[in-house]
Write a structure and sequence with these properties.
With 222 residues, this protein is mainly α. It has nine helices and no strands. Helix 2 packs antiparallel against helix 8, helix 5 runs antiparallel to helix 7 and helix 7 runs antiparallel to helix 9. The radius of gyration is 20 Å and the shape is elongated. InterPro entries: UCP010219 (IPR016566). Keywords: Membrane, Transmembrane, Transmembrane helix.
């Protein structure tokens, strides 16, 4: 197929800006892993270091003008993960919230595809200010649905790696896996899902910035 309209972003990564969020999500777990390791397995110290790093990151983001809601949600996630680990006394449980989140995300994306409200379309449509106009374009809905399976695969892959490590209590390996499977995996997911999206749009489609209104095409015999 021909490339989409020239005014489209070159990639989903450019449109969604996933790198910054991925880095923010990685720093507190790395801080926990380092604190836990340097303190010879102290969950309390690991959690304390992670919360301090998360708080400093939140302050920095707020000073840069980021939305307070998204910043505070990120900090709350670190605090909840820390509370879980402190409650159980097991370092690996700092990553339990991430594990559960990936499971829930995979399920949510699958459901969205089945009911023809693919979450990739919801996210991109929101970013582009289209609200639900993209859903009136059958080709675009189909392409978003197929591209959304790449995101499902991303979450499932994380689960396949995280669950055995969590069951083994491998805190160091979980920390390394969290780094390796955050921005690198998200970057790959953005690139592949963008390729799938473009490949599944008709050659004459104007692109994701210009959804077509198929409901405007009325069957004369109806």
């Amino acid at each position: 197929m021909t490339a989409p309209s020239g005014d489209q972003p070159e990639s989903l990564a450019a449109l969604l800006g996933g790198k910054r969020g991925a880095i923010d999500a990685t720093l507190p777990p790395v801080a926990f892993g380092l604190g836990w390791w340097l303190s010879d397995g102290s969950v309390g110290i690991g959690v304390g270091v992670a919360v301090v790093v998360g708080a400093l990151l939140a302050v920095w983001r707020l000073r840069r003008g980021d939305k307070p809601r998204s910043v505070l949600i990120g900090l709350a996630g670190v605090c909840v993960a820390g509370l879980i680990a402190l409650y159980t006394g097991r370092g690996e449980d700092f990553f339990l919230l991430q594990l559960l989140s990936n499971g829930a995300s995979a399920l949510a994306w699958i459901i969205s595809i089945v009911i023809r409200w693919p979450l990739l379309g919801v996210v991109v449509g929101t970013v582009l200010g289209q609200k639900t106009r993209w859903r009136r374009d059958r080709a675009l809905v189909r392409a978003y649905g197929r591209a959304s399976w790449i995101w499902v695969a991303q979450y499932v892959l994380r689960l396949l790696v995280f669950i055995p490590l969590w069951l083994a209590g491998a805190v160091g390996a979980l920390t390394a896996a969290r780094v390796a499977m955050t921005w690198p995996l998200i970057a790959a997911c953005l690139a592949v899902s963008w390729w799938v999206l473009r490949r599944n749009l008709p050659a004459d489609h104007p692109g994701i910035r210009h959804p077509q209104d198929d409901s405007a095409t009325v069957n004369p015999g109806a």
